Each structure stands twice: as C-alpha cells, then as structure tokens.
Write the structure tokens for this entry.
Amino acid sequence: MRLLTLLLAALPAAAGTLFVGAWPARLLVIDEASEKMIGEIPLATGVPRSIIRSHDKKKLFVTSMKDSGIEVIDLATRKVIKSFKLNSGGKIVRLGGIEPDPQDKVLYATAYTVEKKIDRWVVGKPKWVVIDIEQEKITKEVDFSKEDEQSGFARFSPLRVSPDGKFLYMFRENIQIYSTDDFKPVEKIELSKSSFPGMERVFLRPGDDPFEEPGTVLGLFNSTDPVVHRSIFGIAKLDLLKRTVDFKPVAPATQGTMGLYLTPDRKQGYTVAFNGGGMNRRNEFWALDLQTGQIARKQEFEGRTRFSFKISSDGKSLYLFGAGNTLEIYDAATMKMKKEIDVNADMTTDMVVIP
Amino acid sequence: MRHLKALNKKARRIEEYVAATEGDVFALQQGGPPGQRPHYPMGCSIVFSPGWEVDATGGTAGLCQPVERDLYDCYISCYWPAQVPDHLNNYPDWTKKCAAATKDWRNIDLVFP
C-alpha cells in the first residue's frame, strides 16, 4: 500500500495551463504541473469579463466591460495579438452571449447599444452583431425577432455554432437555431417535447469543456414529470448537426449543479451539486460514470459561498476558483483539498483549461 | 371594515399586539411566516439599509465571506450603483491599486461624489 502511494506520488502531474482573467486588467497564467502562477498577460482594454477558447485551440478571445473591448491572445507566445474597443463616441455596446465562427475569424454575439444624447441615455433594442476580428469592428447588425425581443433573457443566453458554421444555437428554455447568414430562426428544439418520456420541463446549458466530443453539447438537466412533479436530474447530449437531444436520467434532482466536465477518456464526468440554501447549503463533488449513467462517488466539501468549478487537463484534480484571490485544488480520487494557491488578484472571468 | 376603535391605552396595546402577530417583522430564528420570504431583493441591495447586500433569506450567511471577495464582481456583473463608485463613467480608477480586495482593500481610493 505504501509502495502504491509512493508510485502515485511519483506520477507526473497534469501538463496543462490555466488562464483566468483577473483584476485590474490581466490574464493570469497558472502551470498545472507545478501548481504555481507562472505569469500574467496584461490587457489593454480594462477589466476582463469573459474568456473564450478559439475553435482551433490556439487563441483566446477576451472581452472587457468598460469600453466593450475585445482582445485576442496567442496561446503559443502568450501575448495579445489584437486589441480593440467596440465603444465609440457616446455609443456603448453591451455584449451578451458570444461565440466564434468555426474559422475563428468573426465573433457572433447578442448585444444592445446605449447611446448618450445631450440630455439622456437611449437604450437600443437587442440585436445580433458580427464582430470581424481582422477589421476590428462590428460589420453586421440584425435586429432580434419579435419573440426574442420580448424575452428579456435572450440577449444573455449562451450560444454555440454548428460545426459547418451555418447555424447558431441559442440555449434558452428551448434551443433556438438561427442561420448565421441572416440570423433568421430556422428551427426550434423544444426541450419540453423531448423523446424522454413524461418530461414536463428541462434546462440544458452548454459548458466549456476541452474534452467534449466535437459537434456535441453535453450538459446536465433537471426535469419534472407532469403527474407527481417529481424532479430528477440526468445527462443530456445535443448533436449539433443532427439536432437531436439524447437524455439519460440519473437520480433524483438536487437543488443545482455546476456543469459537467469530462476526463480525457470521456468515461467519467465531474460536477458540483448543491442541496439546501443560504447558511444550510451543502456542497458535494459528484463523479459520474458516463458509461453506466450512475453516480460513481460523491463527497461533501466546505466550499466558499460563491465559486466556479473546472477540472484539470488530466482529470485528476478539481478546481474551485472565482470570487476572490484563491484557487483551491482538490484531488479527484479522494475529493479532498490538497492545495490552495493565492494568485494575489481577484478573478473576474471563467477559467480556461488548455491541455 | 373596522367596527371597533381603541379608545384607551390598554385597548391600543391589544391592537398593537394583534397587528404585531400579523406583520412581516419576524425574528430570524423563527424562520419567518409560512410561505413568506423577506422582502429584500435577492442578491444585490438597491437601498442603503442595511448598506450591504443580503442573501435570499435576508441574512448574510449566503454571501461571500469575507465580504471583500464580492466587492468587484458585485458591481461588474450585478451593477451595484448605490454602494460603490461608478467604474464605468466617473471613477474608472478607484481600484487601480487594489488587485485582491480581501488583502489590500486599504489601497482602494476614497471617492467623494
């Protein structure tokens, strides 16, 4: 047993790199192997708000809030190769969901404008925008349809592009599919009318998982049956080309989960589940066996009140970060905390794991 | 319609007692009246009282601890205009010298609106 422990300790740690936006205007670079911060990338446009990995996995797109800045970071050199602002004069652009096209040349986004007039601010209607990275500006604007305009949350909904680049998926109470040519709705996948029997309502949100199967969105869902209203949770897989959703129920629902992240072999997934609220909230790590569709292990932990969750590039460590200046590293096998890294800056974006 | 009106001190005390049992002020340990929750907006506070945000239960146990962990994100993602300086237009540099609020909050600039 002791020899096994020694052998496990001698195994190399994950060789990936973590990138996370932090106060006041930079990206922090953390080495997974040494579990140390190894550098930072200064940003020109202010406090980073969101961070997205490009489809070719060679770049990062970072948005900042103050001037609606867009910055492109080259992962090989860890340098900003493009930086521009969308705000101009008295016109402010507020971005919502953002998704690069498959060639990473443009960003599709939902947005609205706020214009400063001589005596007032005028808030514009929500619209689709296309941001051309090379031209460093918005090259196309299309107003939302009436239905989307009336849905207050449509402008913040997450987006995904189809592998062929022809369609854009917006994740709301249902999945709306739009043409990337004219942003006209072409189809709607009604989650409440899914193939899963007895389903009354279901929520599905895409995550940011480096090991997700290309062309698919894997997520956790909660559903309630219409007869006795019993809530269950499960794993849903959306095929972006076939436009089908496969539902696999797992267990009675919890109050909430934090997205599903896969191990490199895609056999296991990890999530954080919550039960109870306020001061009585309990946090648990769950390891899901994706082949049997069962909860393989779970462990309660004392998490901070607000945090984000990711797993390491080798699937052997679990990361809790955000809302503060510390990154907590848990061992995925024991689900116990093994290290806390102080990055000396408050984190303001999601974290991208680059294997 | 009220048919009775309290005329003396004792009657007014009875009236106050009855009103107190039906009011919406409850000790936190009582858990509040059934089916009701505190009337605070969940998350960010839009008023100066209590001066800091409260959680969905009206307490502070559901908030970041220490509260400084929440300082920046509250006004960036929630936009919390009453309690913190306006980063977007008037005071863009008020936290320029403070990277980690829990550690060096003393470096936050004073702002006099």
